[in-house]
Structure formats: C-alpha cells, structure tokens
Structure prediction request, 678 residues.
Amino acid sequence: MKVLDFPLTKITIAFIIGLLVSYYWLSGFLVTAVSIVSITILFSIFYFTSKKNKKHLIFFGISTYLLSFWLGIISLLLHTNTLQQSHYSHYQQGFEKPHSMSFTLIEKLKSNVYNDRYVALLNPIKNSFYQGKIIVNIEKDSTSNRLIIGNTIQTKATLQHLGTIKNPYQFDCGTYLANKQIYAQVFISKSEIRINKKVNRTIWFYAAKLHSRIIYNLTKAGLNKTEMNVAMALILGQQQEISPETLKDYQYSGATHVLSVSGLHVGYIMLFILFLLKPIPNTRKGSFIKLITILVALGLFGIISGLSPPVLRSVVMFSFLAIGNHLRRGSNIYHTLLVSVLLILLFEPYFLFDAGFQLSYIALFSILWIQPLLKEIWKPTTKILTYLWEALTVSFAAQIGTFPICLYYFHQFPFLFFVTNILILPVLSFTMIAGIVVLLISVFTGCPIIFIQIFEKSIYLLNTIIHYIASFEFFVIRDIRFNFYYLLTYYLLIITTVIWFKKPTYSKLIATMVSIVIVQLAYISTKKEAENKSELIVYHIKKKTIITERTGQNITLFANDTLLGKDSLQKSINSYLVGSFGILKSTRTIKNIFFFNSKKIFLIDSSGVYKKTISPDVLLLIQSPKINLDRVLLDLNPKIVVSDGSNSYSIQKRWQISCYKRKIPFHSTGEKGFYKLN
Prediction:
C-alpha cells in the first residue's frame, strides 16, 4: 500500500501545512474562527450528501483537508502565549524597572560557569494578571544550592528580553526558546531571593524528586560520577551533567542519538515490561491488565524523561501498538506513525519546529521505508552475518533520511557512524537492560553492589568504544556548507530515487533525473548568489573588534594587531564563513577609515583622536574611547553611530542618550547584534 494513498497521510500533511502557514503568517483569531466555522458547515453538508451521491465524495475529501488545514492554523494560535493578553510580554513596565515578582521552578537546565539556570512559571506580577514561562539565572556562590523543582521564589528583578543573534549565521537561541514559549529571563543572586516554605507539588516536582532519589541511591552504592551521568542520559535522557568531552566523543562517533531518549529506549522499556508481565495469561482480562500496565508505565517513563519530542513520539507510537495488539488488529506501522504525529502536534504544535522532533520522525520513517530496500541487496547465510547486515542497513537507512537535515542544522557529518552502531549495539543492549534494572531498584532502595559494578563496567566499555572511534577525527567532516535550497533539493532527490528503486519505471527514472538537475541548479544559484553579494559586518565579540568586508565569495577580515595570527580569530567568524559560502582571503589590521559602496565608515578607538573634517556616514566606536560624544556628533554629524562589544556597558548607555538627543540612530551590537552594511 502506498503511503500517500492513506487518507490519514493527506490529513496530516494538510494539518502540518496549516501549522507552517500559521507560524510564518499569524492570522487573527476572528478570521480563523470564521474560516473554521464555514469549512465545518461545508464538511457536514458534503458528508451527508456524499452518502447519497458518490460524485460528492471528492468535495467531501477537499473539505476534510481544508478543515485539517485550518485546525492546524488555530492549533498553533491557541498555543502561542504572546497572543494572550495575560502574557508578560504585554507588560512593558516589567522590562523597564525592577518589580516584585514570584515564580515557580519547573525544570533544571544545564548550568554555566556563572549561573544555575531554571525554567520557571512567572506568577502574576505586582497584583496584575501577567504570567508565563521565563528563564531564571541564579548567580553561583560558595553556598550550596538549596533549590528544588517546585520551589516558589520571591524576589525583585527586571525582566530582560532574550538576546538576538549576536553574529551572522549563529544559533538563534531566542527563536529556539520562543518555540518553547519562553520570551524573557531574569538574573538574580541567592541573597535577593526568598523561598516559600510551601512547595508546589506538581507532576514535575515528583519527577525531579524521583531523579534526585535515583542519583542519591546510585551515589550511595558507589557508581562512578562519569558513568552515572551517562546512565542518566541513556535511561532518562537527562544530559545536563554530561561533560563536554564525553558529549564531543558521542558527536564525533555518530552516537549522539544514544543519549537522546527515543524509540530505541522506549522499545527496551516495553520489552522489559512485557517480560515482567509474561506470567499473566493472554485471556481477555489478562490482556487488558497488560495493556493498562504498559500504557501507565510508558506514560510515567515519558513524564520522568521530561516529555521531550522524541520521547513523546515513541511513547505515543508504542502505546498505539499496544492498543492494536490488545484489540487483536493488525496495525499498519505507517498509520501508527501518522496518528502519533497528528496527536502530538495537535497538543504541542511547536514541536514541529524542534530539530529533535524532526530528526526523530525522519529517521524512523527512513528506516521503515528505505531499510527493506537495502536489506534485499544481500542475503547473509549465517545468523551473525544476518544480525550485522540488518544493523548496518538500519543505520544506513536512518542516515540516508537524516543526512540533509543534519547537514542543514549542524554542518558536520561523522563518516564512522556505521562502525559505531555495529560495535556498540550489543553493548548498548546489555547496558540498557542492566540500566533499567538498576534504576528501577534505585527508585525504592540502594542497589546491590554487584549490579552497580556490572552496570558501571558496561557503561565504561560503551564510553571506551565511542571514545576510540571519536579519536579518528579526520573521519568527521566539519564546516559543510549547506543551505535551505540544498535541504529541499536533496530530499527531492532521495524521495524520487527510492521510489524509482522500489519499482523501476521509465517515468520514475525521468523524475529522478529531473531531481538531479534541480540539485545542480541549487548549487549554481547558490554560487551565483554568493558571487554577487557584497557586505561589511561589524561583529559582537566581548573585548574584541572584528570587521569583515565581503566582495563576492572573497572575505577580508580586519582585527587588532594583538589578534592577528590567532586561530581563535577565524573561529569567531567561522559560522559566517560556512553560512555565507564565503572564503577568507586575507587578514589585515583595522583601519580608521573604511570605504564601502560609496559610504565612509570612520573608526574612533581608545585614543579618541579624530579630525573634524571627516564627515562619515557611519561612526564606529571601539575600545571605550574617552570622548565627549555630544561634541563628536556636532563635529562629525554621522548618519548612524555603531558601538561594538569592545566598549563598556555604562559608556554605551551614555552614548545612546547623546544619540537620542540629536536624533541619530545608535546601534549597539550587544543589544541589537551585529551591524551589517550592504
């Protein structure tokens, strides 16, 4: 059966298109509501008329897809918190000066050097009704952290907008958090907070408490901290405490998916539950008991793991498989996959824009669709060869499907992924089973030392294998230039090629050839666009001044004498070189005067020296020069003033006031990100 022939496929696609349209073009609630009511009426009319007249079936189908499309639009609107008047983003005073506020901690994030970080629910500010999710940064000090998930904290602070992209083509943290409905953050110290004695006992409180209990019992039993951090990631998806070195090994070996709880992990959980329930007979009552146990266990595991997109996808899909098995109905795996997509996006539409969610579903669909084709290439004669071949084909199928989107997001590819997956699969299987047993015991009491030692050694062996493979860094291709055009055209090529291989025909061959031509056109258009581009960029880098001038693909980098020749200099603009398809041709010392596209850029450094006769279009201030900006603006009369990251914050605030008085635009890279001149 062809996947696209499923009505559910078309309904899901229409729903996803609705989400995309709503995301990039936010329509009003009134327009959406009127459209849904109208489509619902048409849907109802054609539903009843199609029963009497089969010719109306086509109109019933169209109205179904239109209804799904508009449901996608309104689903995203309803889950966009900033559209609600009660959201703190509408309370401008909260961003201008300190206010008394309280918030409840709901999730612990990975700490940085300076702060412990949490996601919190902001309670109504100053007796108002404004609320929402924020990031709370609590400054570290010598005292121990007494905070737990569920604590309600009272303090006085100012809301701060999440930062914009500081430099071109860098990771957009603001958009990433906005897709999680987080739009602001606060910075506070421990001395500024008061913790309420009453703990908010939500489901997140009990999940965090369970994590703490497991970690306490594992530590008490003597599990090494390095292995324990990996164990928490393997079993529960908690990666906050994994060291950067370990994480780098998993990335370079192509085994990052092992640390992200997904179908592999949920599958092990389900097999373990079925093993425990084996004594229960397969009668009607026994089957129902098994179903309820599986659903409850999977639901609890999903909550404990943090309900991340991969976990949700896997839990929902395996739940449907369990229900289908209970009803004695043969369920099509594609149907199960589509239902899980539709249900998850219906309740959490912003998951569609989560890279983990996208990779998870693409990988699973690729395995279901491409692996049977690869499996037929060779028929092994022994069990061990069959096992290795199936593991290899599953790995290749997943990589074929996720290859374009991995390059688009991460710009690197580990070529030893298939070696990693073959070598770690037996160890991982044993580690997962041992880990489930150890963590299950640790929920209630201390785990026997023999179990701990077996579990610790298995994780140590897993880490050793992965570290050894990751040591061959020359097999990891980094800084791969890959844009959105390539993403679309490569997927078109993969889809047409697989369809042709599954059932070769002349028309499918033509479609594959056309897709190859389209890929080549994407390369040509990208190269032509890069060659015709010219721009000057002032970067935001703390205590440094870096400027690039681009003409076509050639990029000239300007920096201070103290920075020239350092490797860190190119790393500072590496994302720009990759994203813009540019080539760094030369590195030069910063000049005081730049001419770019008939515009004059004048630079004042720490010396504060300038000539009154210059009259620049752009005045660039660097290294906190001790100048009277009011006098400088009167002398030079620039069209815009730009301040980079080498200037102190307090001086920039004074400069901003001076520019405001003379109605001259002021661009601080610390607030607005990099400055670009086309």
Observations:
- The longest helix spans residues 383-410.
- DSSP finds 24 helices and 19 strands in the chain.
- The chain has a mean pLDDT of 86.
- Residues 165 and 171 are 7 Å apart (CA to CA).
